[in-house]
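quick one if you have a minute, typing this from the bus. below you get a single protein, a line of residues and a line of whole numbers that encode the local backbone shape. could you go over both lines and see whether the tokens make sense for that sequence. anything you notice is useful, everything is just below.
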Amino acid sequence: MVERLAAPLDLTYMALADPTRRAILQRLRTAEARVTEIAAPLPMSLAAVSKHIAVLERAGLLRREIRGREHYLSANPQPLTEAERWISEYTGFWERRADALADHLEQQIEERPTP
């Protein structure tokens, strides 16, 4: 099997695809927290939470600071900017396509012969 390096955008979307990882990011939106504080309310083991945290770190969505024996995490929103930019580009594309379809359908209705 051939492995390739994932692009940053791929890593961001992969990280955001899981509800647990989104919950972790939501928790870190307002303030940093220790890994154990993040894991406490989640219905899984600390080891499972650590795996989710590793995915978020690989995507660059988290920063880790080690102070003594404690690991503190904080959110890094920078990768979300690129993801938002990508979505915005495609939103504009599909809006134009939908507008063109609406115009076409309207024209078809107007050209219909009246009984």
Summary: The first strand starts at residue 33 and ends at 34. The mean pLDDT is 89. The domain at 8-76 is CATH 1.10.10.10 (Arc Repressor Mutant, subunit A).
